[in-house]
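REVIEWER CHECKLIST
Item 1: Sequence provided? yes
Item 2: Single chain? yes
Item 3: Sequence as submitted:
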Amino acid sequence: MMEERYQLSIDRIKEVTVEEILQQPFLDYFRKVAGFLLEMDRLYVDITKGCLEKESMEELQKRNAALYEDIAAPSYEESYANPDYAVSRLGEPYGALLSFLYTEMRAMIGYAYEQEIFEYVIRMELFLEIYGAFCDAFQENSMAPDRERIRDIMYWYVSDYSEPEMEQRIGEQLDPSHCFAGDIIMESDLRDLRYLYRYGEYITENEIGTARHLNELSTEEIQKIADTYTEGYRMGFVNGNKDLSKKKVVNIRFCVGFERVIRQAILNFRKMGLQPTIYRAGYSIFHRRGVYKIGYYGACINKQYEYDHKEDLALFYDKLLMNRKLEILREAYEKEKEWADVHAGPACMEVFGEEIFQPVNKKTACRMSEEQQKLSVEYASRSGSIVNEYIRGDERSFTIIAFPIPEIGPDYEQIFDEVVRINTLDYQLYESIQQKIIEALNQACYVRILGGNGNRTDISVFLQELKNPDRETNFENCVADVNIPVGEVFTSPQLKHTDGTLHVSRVFLNELEYRDLEIHFRDGMITSYDCRNFATEEENKRYIKENVLFHHESLPIGEFAIGTNTTAYVVAAKYGIADKMPILIAEKMGPHFAVGDTCYSHSEDVAVYNPDGKEIVARDNEVSLLRKTDRSRAYFNCHTDITIPYDELELIQAVRRDGTVIPIIQGGRFVLPGCEALNIPFDSEKSMNS
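Item 4: Structure as written out by the authors:
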């Protein structure tokens, strides 16, 4: 039946390219999109016949570039995927809708490689239904159809197909029999870089250069990298007091080009009794998560394109659709509940080093209304609770590690080696030093953090009261387990009395830059915020609310930490890459604050211990404790770390109840006795510079 619907759609689309029912500019739009769909048909057929397997590297590169050319600069300026261009050509009522439509068609590229005929059919039928609506209107009165009619067609497309799309997505996340990417990783000749083009992702010199560099490393070096990644995952269960033997599935997330390491990681995980699930990052309206990629992915051809379409759901989002999505989410998990029960959590390998992206806020791009923002917050809370019912937070774990890509600069190979070194630092040394910091902090009722060198931070973070200091601690001694590399002590602060200002001159959060970011807190909750990215205060506040607060009116401080990885800080300074370091490493390069949930979200009742045997009792705050009475108010389903670099730091001191203080950091250097080794990288850098 799908094949019949497919062929009927293709035959009709061919007619669209020659029909002249519509007037300009709509005639041009529908012909161009129809032309793209015919290209997708040819691609689908070529893959079915195995044609790509016979193509040379040059032919594959040419094909790949052609698939993505329309959204690459400078073509994007005159692409219907660009909402500015779509609105200028098609008019205010239709521009955003038809720009979204074309964007949804472009999701077919990945489905061609996966040979998902259903995904092809539903998108081609959507296109033809909207084309038909325009034809009917022009034939009746020579005018475009009512905007609401077009919006309704799209609305019911999203509503009707959310169920099969959700079932497919949850299946890919939980059931290891979905093995499209896994087969590429395990079966390809990784020395033949043509394998990179089997995914259907956009491939650049970053992916090619990464794969080529990994091929140059010895088997022992690859094993070391993979072991760091998988052992961190295993230790997350050990240190979190969770039973890994009950689990059978691990979700692997990575960037194309790292297959040699991922292959070895899969073999390592299998020895732990875990099979991988590996799914593509979402590109369609059903799976896209803003500008954030969750899954496996290739290069981003145009970050402005992704930013322009991060809230396309605003075209249709209402309470009915939200409730529909929640209902089918639960149904999808119920169907996969046996796999969900043995799902151990994600193992993420991230990349960094891309050119800095400075987004442009376009008035033509979709933005959620205030009511839709509230619905988005509600959906995040309720969906998070559903997921936690089936994949229990107190039974799962995760790990994250990051590596540079060639775009980071001419010193790529040296930086890569330095990052491998950073990721494998002596955790026992850090463990012993960090224990001294924790012992000092456990004497305090609050910690004062004061910025320097123009940094306006001045905040007092209050700590939970220890009832039995001989057996309890507030801070976790974090070495290289879930968050690789080593280097931090962290806690869930007491919100009451935690007041002040957090400021950083420049920071990158979730791949977006913030300049002169300033956030004010009272009783641990955000009261106001601003930055200097855009010309107006309104734009700056909206930017923060959308991408840091995720549409919440306020968020609590979920974490306070002191990063101790001065080696990473010095490496970043040496190569001039501090602005490109991922938050995973950057958070270890100074004190940081996380806004949102605590680090123990959904697993607060699991007892966790430091290596010295003391239980970490600061796993809750006043907000997360609401789970005992009203779970919907306890979680925000976000956690964003904001780091103050050492060179913007004047003071961190632990303040006892009697007012006496214990300095931890002063003038950007560790001054607590027993922490002298943390200053050695600073001294080495100073010596080299002099």
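Item 5: Key structural point noted by reviewer: The mean pLDDT is 95.
Item 6: Recommendation: ____
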